[in-house]
Amino acid sequence: EVTQDLPEGAFFNSTTGHLYLADSTGRNRSSAGSYASGLDLWGTDGHLVSITNETENNFLKDSIDGSDSYWIGAGDFHDEGEWEWKYGPGTPDVFFLDIVVNRGAQGSFLSDFFWWGSGEPSNSLNCEGPIWDLDCRFEDDAVFNASSGEWFDQDERANRGTLVEFSRNST
């Protein structure tokens, strides 16, 4: 049972014992990660959420009002197409291998759960700036769509909300 008052945007999952905070303030992925890790509830540091099963994914979708998109703790940070949870207990943990990138066919299921939207991860190339000083980056970070519960990959420079997880049993 949660005994302290929850901050605005926070909700508790009694099944997992985790507390979550959905902050819709637009931040890039780096700022969202720093924001999440700078928070503390229950004497536990926050981190971008790691969604490890369908029940948790549905709980988050049902608990967040609106249709905003939120940074979550997944990305193909080290090896293109190897999607892993970067934050939280037991990380890094590779959960999805995009074999479009690595072997020429869509999807390899290294985990029992992932919830990519149709055609995701797309690994699109996003370019900003004038042609003489073009800054191009692939979509290497994951975002959670609150209205559908689906995930999609995003360029780290995009401004999205932050979905933070706190766990009493994290190490």
Describe the structure.
The protein has 171 residues and is mostly beta strands. The protein has helices spanning 29-37, 54-63, 99-102; strands at 10-13, 18-27, 40-41, 44-45, 47-48, 69-75, 82-85, 93-97, 108-109, 125-128, 135-138, 141-145, 151-154, 160-167. The strands form 3 sheets. Strands 1, 2, 5, 6, 7, 8, 9, 12, 13 and 14 form a 10-stranded mixed β-sheet that branches. A two-stranded antiparallel ribbon has the order 3-4. It has a two-stranded antiparallel ribbon with strand order 10-11. The longest helix has 10 residues, at 54-63. The radius of gyration is 16 Å and the shape is globular. The mean pLDDT is 82.
A few lines on this structure:
This protein has 171 residues and is mainly beta. It has helices at 29-37, 54-63, 99-102, and strands spanning 10-13, 18-27, 40-41, 44-45, 47-48, 69-75, 82-85, 93-97, 108-109, 125-128, 135-138, 141-145, 151-154, 160-167.
Ends apart, CA distance between termini? 21 Å
Determine the strand fraction and express it as a percent band.
35-45%
Structural class: mainly beta
Q: What shape does the CA trace take?
A: globular
Order of helices and strands: EEHEEEHEEEHEEEEEE
Mean pLDDT: 82
Please estimate the helix content: 10-25%
Number of strands: 14
| Tally of helical segments | 3
Taking all Cα atoms into account, the compactness measure Rg is 16 Å
Query: How would a crystallographer describe the biggest sheet?
Result: 10 strands, mixed
**Which residues form runs of ≥5 with pLDDT under 50?**
none
